[in-house]
Design a protein that fits this description.
The chain is elongated and about 80 Å long. It folds into 2 domains: 128 residues, no CATH class; 125 residues, Sandwich (Immunoglobulin-like), CATH 2.60.40. The longest helix is centred in the first third of the chain and has 23 residues. It is an alpha+beta fold. The protein is 23% helix and 31% strand. A 9-stranded antiparallel sheet has the order 4-3-2-1-6-7-8-9-5. Strands 13-12-11-10-15-16-17-18-14 form a 9-stranded antiparallel sheet, with no helix packed on it.
Length: 318
């Protein structure tokens, strides 16, 4: 009998606990909060950002007609849109789920006190602040970082590499693409290698022909390889401090020009060696000096014999 009474009591307690759980739903609030209430900037929408200021102007970006530009004292340059997009998304995903301190006096310990940490401010197209926060010291794992909203006392530990992104030199935020081209739009290509000039034309059927220094059908696959490498070409480094004449780009030994269907042209100039394996280059006259890895030059500037279409052997007649 006693065992039976204990069993009934256990069942009653379980039922009562179930009713309380159903009514109270203790995890309901946590679930709702994790769905968006924990975001540091719940109203931030990356696609509405128009300006970014980092570290009192150490880094500055502007959105101009849908394209991001890096703004520096030396001028403005196209920014790496993938890096900027990733950074904006990281701001969107900042969360308050690991609060390290709410004590204002301890902000200096985490490097997020005003005037101490790296301040990041984002504006919309009407110069209204969308987000304003400080990024401080790295976390214990060496990857995470402490942050604080400018209008809050909460110090939050954020996972990821936010600190490393902000510590990068300004030039590494630039777009490294040198010579983006659509191969199907190119109708002529001119290669100047020392004193020799090679001219290739595309006919109306898409075939390539050498027209200078000789007249012969070109190896279409080899020409398309040049255009593919040209489209994928990226700067290994930037050398704005170099003058074109110092870099051997006023009278370069290597010059490549392409003409498009719309009659516009683009040019690549290659000058003196910049370092072991690298060469100074410039994407057209008046542009800033960059450094290219020398390994691609053999593909971009072949000898004319390497551009000739392979001969088709004819069978011997007995």
């Amino acid at each position: 009998m006693k065992a039976r009474r204990n069993l009934i009591l256990i069942i009653v307690l379980l039922l009562a606990g179930g009713i309380v759980f159903f009514i109270e739903r203790p995890f309901e609030g946590n679930r709702r909060q994790s769905d968006g209430d924990l975001l540091v900037f719940p109203d931030f929408e990356p696609w509405k950002a128009d300006k970014i200021q980092v570290g009192s102007g150490r880094l500055a970006f502007e959105n101009r007609d849908g394209s991001w530009f890096l703004i520096t004292p030396a001028g403005s340059y196209p920014a790496d849109r993938n890096q900027v997009s990733a950074f904006l998304q990281a701001v969107r995903e900042l969360k308050r789920d690991n609060i390290a301190s709410e004590n204002e006096e301890k902000q200096a310990i985490f490097g997020v006190r005003a005037g101490q940490g790296t301040q990041v401010v984002l504006y919309d197209s009407e110069d209204r602040k969308m987000a304003d926060f400080f990024v401080g010291k790295k976390g214990p794992d060496g990857l995470s970082a402490y942050i604080r909203r400018a209008d809050s006392k909460e110090v939050i530990l954020q996972p990821g590499t936010l600190r490393d992104h902000l510590d990068k030199p300004a030039k590494w935020w630039r777009d490294r693409k040198v010579f983006p081209v659509k191969a199907e739009d190119v109708v002529q290509m001119t290669l100047q290698i020392d004193a020799e000039t090679i001219v290739l034309n595309r006919d109306t059927k898409g075939g390539w022909f050498i027209v200078k220094p000789l007249s012969k059908k070109a190896d279409g696959a080899r020409v398309e390889q040049i255009l593919t490498v040209l489209n994928d070409l990226e700067a290994a480094d930037f050398a704005e401090e170099m003058k074109p004449e110092e870099a051997g780009l006023v009278s370069p030994q290597l010059r490549l020009a392409v003409r498009f269907k719309d009659r516009s042209t683009q040019m690549l100039l290659v000058g003196l060696p910049a370092n072991e394996g690298g060469y100074y280059a410039m994407a057209g006259e008046g542009q800033s000096v960059i450094v290219l890895q020398g390994g691609v030059l053999g593909i971009l500037f072949p000898e004319v014999k390497d551009l000739e279409a392979p001969s088709i052997a004819t069978p011997r007649q007995e």
